[in-house]
Amino acid sequence: MTDYASRRAAVARTVAEAGHKNLLVSDLKNIRYLTGFSGSNAAVLLNADGAATIVTDGRYDTQVHQETASGPASPLDIIISRDLFGELTRVAGDAGYAIEPGLSVGEARTLGDPAILAGAVESARLVKDAAELDALREAGRLADTVFTEFLAAGGIRAGLTEIEAAADLEHRLRAAGADGLSFDTILASGENAAKPHAGVSRDVIVPGLVTIDFGVWLDGYASDQTRTVCVGEPDALSRELYDLVHRSFSAGTDAVRPGAGLFAIDKVCRDIIADAGYGEYFVHSTGHGVGLDVHEGPNAASRTDESETLVAGETLTIEPGVYLPGKTGVRIENTYIVTDDGAETVNPSTTELQVV
Questions:
Q1: Does 72 have pLDDT greater than 80?
Q2: Angstrom distance (rounded) from CA 304 to CA 27
Q3: Could you give the C-alpha distances from 45 to 23, 112, 269, 294, in angstroms and in order?
Q4: In this structure, are residues 107 and 85 in contact, taking their beta carbons and an 8 Å threshold?
Q5: Domain formed by 4-125, architecture
Q6: Domain ranges, ordered by start, for the chain
Q7: What residues contact 178, with CB distance under 8 A and at least 6 apart?
Q8: Which of 146, 187, 302, 324 gets the most CB atoms within 10 Å of its CB?
């Protein structure tokens, strides 16, 4: 079972070190991390000594008692009320609280403009515990397996519309047990593939490259992967771009290990593409963490501080891409768990170009 009490105690130490008596937690993913509660309306007051109070409304009375866990070292009190912040302001009393930066300016002003404490929970979330890593492996395995079956069944073929193919994939993911989609599926054919976040259109899939970026939620944790396949035999440009992106991807994956610099990982991938003359068409960062959020820290990007390095237990995607406006695009992506001596992918299917 997940030790939520220890998680709260660890974050409470950060709150105390920052000089605050309490932290008002409003981000729902952070609340789930600290308590196990997965409802859509809640707030938590975390005391610097590790004690905590969660407030949610009557719709979740049964759920919050079932999902939350507490222990003598870090007790969790439950209040059922619609007045989340009012109840927690009362509990905090004269000690007051700091808030997370995600709280809106309007809400913060109604609370008296308290101090902002950024990253207290997110920094704890960076290194995943064993239960989290298992959840990430299961989410990745489910999505990867379903996608392999989807391709084998002819899910991508000329004549289908992008939206028809995406609907088929999404149905298969849900039927296999996914709790939901971790983001809107991208399935882009032809010129649409030149848009990194093209989404899904009603356009008909045409011969050539098709990029599919997809993921699921499973037990609260996300998966994220991208495959680019080719409908019919690739022409010279398609083959050139795919081989280039695959070389960049492979170099990036080889660089993932404890102590590796995040800026350096991005640079390894980016330099290969730039040296081939396509640097201006790699328009996003190389990677990000995956966990309770599908996009979270750490980040491998050209703007990342060069001192930031990977630690065992963190996650990172490697996802270089090249996008030629009016022509086509390629992206390849896996999610990796940083191990003691390297990295483990949660998306084991082939990254070689598949012709369908």
A1: no
A2: 24
A3: 6, 16, 42, 25
A4: yes
A5: 3-Layer(aba) Sandwich (3.40)
A6: 4-125, 130-355
A7: 139, 142, 143, 216, 217, 218
A8: 187
